[in-house]
Amino acid sequence: xxxxxxMLMDYYELTMANGYFNEGLKDNWVVFDLFYRKNPDNGxxxxxxxxQQAIEYLLNIKFNDEDIAFxxxxxxxxxxxxxxLANFKFSGNVYAVEEGTIVYPDIPLMTIEAPLVEAQIIxxxxxxxxxxxxxxxxxxxxxxxxxxxxxVMEFGARRAQSYDGAILxxxxxxxxxxxSTATLIADQLFGVKAVGTMAHSWVxxxxxxxxxxxxxxxxxxxxxxxxxxxxxVLTSGIPNAIKVHNEYLKxxxxxxxxxxxxxxxxxxxxxxxxxxxxxxxxxxxxIVVSNSLDEYTIQSLLEQGAKIDSFGVGERxxxxxxxxxxxxxxxxxxxxxxxxxxxxxxxxxxxEKITNPCFKKAYRVYNEKGxxxxxxLALHDEKIDISTTKFIDEKMPWKKIETNPQWTVKELxxxxxxxxxxxxxxxxxxxxxxxxxxxxxxxxxxxxRFKNPHHHYVDLTLALYAKKCELLYSEEH
Length: 477
What we know:
The chain is built from 16 helices and 20 strands. The protein has helices spanning 11-22, 51-60, 65-72, 79-86, 116-121, 123-146, 163-176, 184-190, 200-205, 209-219, 233-249, 266-279, 295-303, 315-318, 429-440, 462-473, and strands at 29-36, 46-47, 93-97, 102-103, 110-115, 151-154, 180-181, 225-227, 258-261, 286-289, 310-313, 328-337, 340-343, 360-366, 372-379, 391-392, 408-411, 413-418, 421-422, 458-461.
């Protein structure tokens, strides 16, 4: 299927863009924020991901002759606008939170400063890119933390929502801390190590389970892991695996690397299996489990004393099955008039949907031990001093926030694109993954809880809060 991802947008983006263009507004500069309102799974935080794909999209967006001809057939867009699209190039500025950064609701993951039409038509692609990978990276990290140092492998491709979901989902899982993937193309494209042994069909094909295991061992003597639950784990699968080790692998100077359980009572079977393997002298043989796992089942298995060395996690991670939608939004926050940005606000009867106006910056405050205490939003040109800047909790504006001069402040966004040109050194995927590890060291243990995590506050500076109140109470917004 031939496709140009520049055309991946909601139709209203083009109807608005065409209207702006025809009204002579295309060169008016604006600011949009991309942010989210609620942590998935009622968790304590989110891992920002997907920025590299968003950057690649912005740097390469274009409309070819076939796209223009298709749009012309709609008989709604002016010929002047179509000519503009035929020569389209993103020329704006992009500020973003780096991939692998721990983030919280209302923090702008991306801020787009660009001519109005440019800023409008990129909405859908930016949202789906950041939404998807941030969701999956966050879910993967929850699962990895539940495994408490044990290896986690991503097994989700066949359950993912399309091939793009599988490929980029595997990338996001790796960012979240997963060690390897069953998805071969993720290894080819991103260098995420591909792993895999056999399916039940391999065992079923041969006359008996022992023959299936022996044949596999002959093919892969140095990396032999056997799937032992096709017929019966304890009376057939594990005994046959031990037999293959004793009769074929051991005489060749090799050993059974592992066994995999994909069904049944995993806690019970792993404990029984560990005892059988140890009694056979296979104390180094690993036990791998799979079968609809998530952070809660893994946590439960380990609490039951399951003897598991690594986990293969599929559908519940690659789709974030427990909460498969990441509610990122893209809202205009300022427009430029006479070289000055005028704040804009969206007001709603749903309080959580009222936006934070103005061209802004986001910051994080750390205590003397390097633990993130709270975040805050400030005006883009506001001078920040932890000892004098006043912070407001919108839900409790009367509350006084006492600061400490030993605390440090870090700006969360960096400038990625300037006037359409990349000015940022793109990190490797491993560097992004390591950033997650380092960021997690700055997160309190209370925020890492799966249930009822500590709430991380995102406050406003007094100056920004005053601007917001001014807009809320003005007759025109």
